[in-house]
Amino acid sequence: ASKGEGLGNQFLANIRECDAIAHVVRCFVDGDITHVDGEVDPIRDIETIETELMLADLDSLEKRVVALEKKAKGGDKEAREQLDLVSRSLALLREGKPARLVEVAPEQRKTFAQLGLLSSKPVLYVCNVEESSADAGNEHSAKVFARAAEEGEVAVVVSAQIESEIAVMPSAEQKDYLDAVGLAEPGLNRVIRAGYGLLHLITYFTVGPKEARAWTVEAGTKAPAAAGVIHSDFEKGFIRSETIAYDDYVACNGEAGAREAGKFRLEGKEYVVADGDVLHFRFAN
Questions:
Q1: pTM reported for the whole predicted model
Q2: For the structural domain made of 201-283, what CATH number should be given?
């Protein structure tokens, strides 16, 4: 792909637009399903893809160095900052290490993100195992988990075969099927939670007489910015947030019960939204 072969540039361009990479890795042996390299080796497969991403990054950065050096020598402060990040990224990439290992100060994150490096994105390894290993994994997935731990990344186990069967079942039948295969929940649930954790995301809810909606924000988001996810006017005219914790909302059977139990709170502009909060925003037009 780094040389334009296969899906080539289209494949790499799609990845460049993502916030993270979910890398599905084959971790099952099946004589009826061939492997391009002749045998199952998830670590080798990971390294094949990672190498392609790093080669693309190397090519991209090496083309920028000369122009950045000229600007930096001319006193361009932004170019100097970019050149520092490019140089440190190149040093790692030439050692065969991904750009996500570059130490970036908080004030440099925006500039670093603008480099658009494929290997700088956080990775979620999704270990695709046989049905019998869908709960605890197998020896192949264990190797992927060990690699993820070394890199500070995340790994989960799923069985694509089981997931494909669940996907076409009526919801009423899914629990019985999961019980039969020894699973407490679909593997997709694990992937979703891991993805949210990897990207530091949380969910809050708005509940009305006609519908309930879930909204996604970054952990640490304050109430006005969370309101802005629904509509920019909510953030601009924010007054307060009527707040009920998810567990309290469920335990008290909704808003009326939460009010009676003293679990209904009024929060201001400095309130940091918690995962699962049920919120109603008051704002001025």
A1: 0.83
A2: 3.10.20.30
